[in-house]
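User: Can you predict the 3D structure for this chain?
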Amino acid sequence: MKVEVYNRIVGYLDALTNIISFYGVLYSYTYKFIEYDNVSSLDECAERFFNESPISKHGTRFDSLRELDDWRSDLFESCSHWFFNVFSMRNFEVSIQDEDGNTMPAQKHRESNRVFNGLLELLEKFFEGENVEVYKLITEPAWVDEFAWEQFFFKCGNKVYVLSFYQEG
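Assistant: Here is the predicted structure, written as structure tokens:
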């Protein structure tokens, strides 16, 4: 069951990668969910991820991991950007009214953001019953020129899962 949900997460991210890269206005996007097994330390895992990823090729350095108190909210804010920013660059916006009647970008309304909620549902199903700590990778600098990235580390026992967002232009 867990392998099936893992594969669904990977497939979900692959589909988003393809759609968003197609509309990417000269940008290419990569969204991944990577498993690291038998992890002895979270910092060691972050260093390994950093060195194996394209992030290390931009003159950046691994700075730290910041533990997230409310990872769902942090992830929502990040996904609202990563999954929909490309449409803003193409001057395509969908707006809705919030509970007070104010107009807002549809992707910023958590209850109606089905793209984010689909990913969150899969992640919650995957980590169901587990004690999960979630961290965000901090690099110096945080982005370079047309390249941007953001990573979430999910520590679960002796495994770490990295949810990685990467943009190259």
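The beta strands are 28-36, 61-67, 95-97, 103-105, 132-140, 143-144, 147-156, 159-168. The chain has a mean pLDDT of 90.
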